[in-house]
Amino acid sequence: MSTEIISRVKEYLGEDFPVRLISQGAEALVFETNQHPFNPEVKTEEFIIKYRPFKNYRHPQIDKTLTKKRTVAECRCLVKLNNMKGINVPHLVASDPYNGYIWQTKIGEQLPNGTFSSLKNFLWLHNNDKDAYLSTVEEVLIKVGKQIGILHNNQYIHGDLTSSNIVLQRDANTGIWDAYLIDFGLSGYSTMVEDKGVDLYVLERAIMSTHSLYADKYNEWIMQGYKESFDNQDNLKQVLKRFEEVRQRGRKRSMLG
Questions:
Q1: Cβ atoms within 10 Å, residue 240
Q2: Using CA atoms, how far apart are residues 195 and 183, in angstroms rounded to an integer?
Q3: Could you tell me the domains of the chain?
Q4: Which residue intervals define the domain Protein kinase in the entry (predicted)?
Q5: Rounded to the nearest 10 degrees, how much is the dihedral formed by the CA atoms of 34, 26, 182, 159?
Q6: Both ends of the chain: CA-CA distance in Å?
Q7: Edge to edge, what strands does the sheet with 47-51 contain?
Q8: Which of the chain's ends, N or C, has fewer CB atoms near its CB within 10 Å?
C-alpha cells in the first residue's frame, strides 16, 4: 500500500521532484525535501511534507471532506502557534487541504549516534547510568516542560504528546538544544483542564514506557519546566489537580486490565 501511496505523491509533485519518505503512520506519511513549493531555485532549506492519503474503506466524498477538514484544522493551529510568543513549532509554508498536503519547515537534526533528534532518541542516547542525569538532559527536559506549559497557557492542547512528537534542535548561535513541538494533527483550542491533564498524562506514560529506569526523574524535570511557565498559580493548581485525577483513572484501568 505504501508503494502505491508514494507513487501517488510523486505523481502529484512531479517525477523529478526530490522527496524522501521518512515516516509512515496510520493517519499520514511524512516526507522530506529541499525543494520549496513555489520557488524551485530555493534549495538551501529543508522542508517536511505531510500527506494524508485517501482511505479506500471510506466513501470517496466522506473521505475527501474529512481530509480537507483535518488538514485545514492542523494548518490553522500551526498558523496560530507560529504567531504565539515563546512557542517553538515548525512554520507553515504551504498547504493543499483538498489533496491532504501540508508543507512546513523541517525541525531537527542528526544525533551523534546517527538517529534523528526526537526527544525519544535523545533520551535513548543517554540511556545509561553515566549519562542519564547529565545537566544537558535536565536542561532539555525542563525546556520541554516549558513548551508544553506555554501551549497550555495559551489554551491549546497537543492531543498526541509523545516523546516522538517533541524534537530537539541546536541553536545556531549557542549550540544549545532547544525543544520543539511537532505534529498537530490532533491539536486544537481548549480551555478544559481535563484536556491539559490528559496531555501531561500521555507524555508521562510515554516516558515511563520507553525510559523506565530514569522515568521518575525525567518526568519530574518536565513538570518543573511546566510549572515554571505558569504565571497564574490558580490555573496551574487546577491543571495539576486534574492531571492527578487522570493519573488515578489510568492506574485503575491498568489494574483492571
A1: 18
A2: 17
A3: 2-105 (3.30.200.20), 119-256 (1.10.510.10)
A4: 16-257
A5: 160
A6: 34
A7: 20-24, 29-33, 47-51, 101-105, 92-96
A8: C
CA separation, residue 164 to residues 29, 65, 91, 160, 214 (Å) = 15, 28, 18, 10, 17
Hey, what amino acid is at 221? W
Residues 2-44 have pLDDT tens digits of 788 888 888 998 888 888 999 887 789 999 999 888 877 766 6
Per-residue pLDDT of the chain (257 residues; tens, 9 = 90+): 578 888 888 899 888 888 899 988 778 999 999 988 887 776 667 999 999 998 878 888 998 999 999 999 999 999 999 999 999 999 999 999 999 999 999 999 999 999 999 999 999 999 999 999 999 999 999 999 999 999 999 999 999 999 999 999 999 899 999 999 999 999 999 999 999 999 999 999 999 999 999 999 999 999 999 999 998 999 999 999 999 999 998 765 655 45
Is 63 labeled as catalytic in the residue annotation? no
Of the CA atoms within 13 Å of residue 118, those in its CB half-sphere come to: 16
Q: Which of 160, 183, 195, 199 is catalytic?
A: 160
Q: Cβ distance 142 to 225 under 8 Å? A: yes
Cα separation, 110 vs 125, whole angstroms: 12
